[in-house]
Design goal:
10 strands, single chain, Spore Coat Polysaccharide Biosynthesis Protein SpsA, Chain A, alpha/beta, globular, eight-stranded mixed sheet, 449 residues
Amino acid sequence: MQDARLPADARLAIERIRRADLVIGIPSYNNGRTITHVVQAAFAGLAKYFPQFSAVVINSDGGSTDNTRDAVLSAQLQDSHLMLFSTPMPAAHRLSFPYHGIPGKGSAFRLIFEMTKLLEAKACVVVDSDLRSITPEWIELLLRPILFAGFDFVAPYYLRHKYDGTITNSIVYPMTRMLYGTAVRQPIGGEFGISAALVERYLERDDWETDVARYGIDIWMTTVAIAEGFRVCQSFLGAKLHDAKDPGADLAAMLEQVVGSVFMLMREYAPVWHNVKGSVPAELFGFRFDVGLDPVPVNVDRMLKAFSRGCAELGEVWEAVMSPRDYTGIRQLAERVRQGEPLVFDDELWARIILDFACAQRHKRLALGTILRSITPLYLGRVAHSVREMEFMTAADVEQRIEQLCLTFERLKPYLISQWNGTSPQTGELAPHEGHLAQRQPDDTRMEV
């Protein structure tokens, strides 16, 4: 039975509550500083916009050692929350459980989805626990398209600082849009609304023990929804203010797992994306407006050093993955960096390299871990280029540059299909599945970034 995977206290809570119309899920790990605000916003949103529905707020915690779970259970609204009520609202339950399985956000979501199904909820919303900009309106915007407009998946559309979301902007958004033909601006945004039917589909799948259970969960959810024909839309949420990181630091594991999930899903849904041409934007709900954004620290010199070191240490790997012209282009960029010249990493070279890596994992030219880890210094080089290029750009200018990158990916789709269908970029022959490079241990390409 599915509920056998739930903690004992979660099963008891299900038996006590029996059913709920709506579920708000909040995965967490040591977020005691911010999660109270998130819980309060969730309750206020339910009270203001959905007083006719019963609801449960579920915190799925990954073993926090701070006060996260206590903060969830003790969160209270200010007295002013009474002004939000239009009619009496059934009391919303508040639950906090540790999840089990692979450490990571995906395992937290699995617990939330299992409880959503067992409670027979109409819809589920998941939100990050480190948010500082969440408002009650986010709950409405993520739920209303499902409850009243027949959508199955609501992705967030928010404004972020031009140096935030670099994995999204440089890889995941262009790739997802090019592959599946639906432009979802924040495919790994962290906040989503999901219908009961889509929750059921997620739980049916058997890839919860992969990197999906870690950082790959967001792109997995978005891709499954689009590729399998569920109704997908976006809601404008304003600014996303959270605990942002320097894009040149501490993102290696996230990059590998997110990109690895994109590649894994490419293999599964190849019959879908092979026939897709161009893209159209997903329908957008909400009122769009400009907002102030927190600055994001960046260390360009650190990124350039990582790129240069990667060029020195990973040449054999990159040569096996890239086409000869792309590998030559990267070597030329590395030489310019060593000579102190600015790094100019153009869109077409970047897009072709990402497509080369996707095809390399498809044909198993190297061990998957080797392929994924060797992307990191290339990504840092591209981000270093983007940071300098965008330094004096407005938000609108930056968005236009990202649009140009997406169009480049779309234009190169025939190149992807040609490579995907079985030819090596070096010889035109099907590359062998195993060779001396594929036997390397994963740590051979581990780099500090």
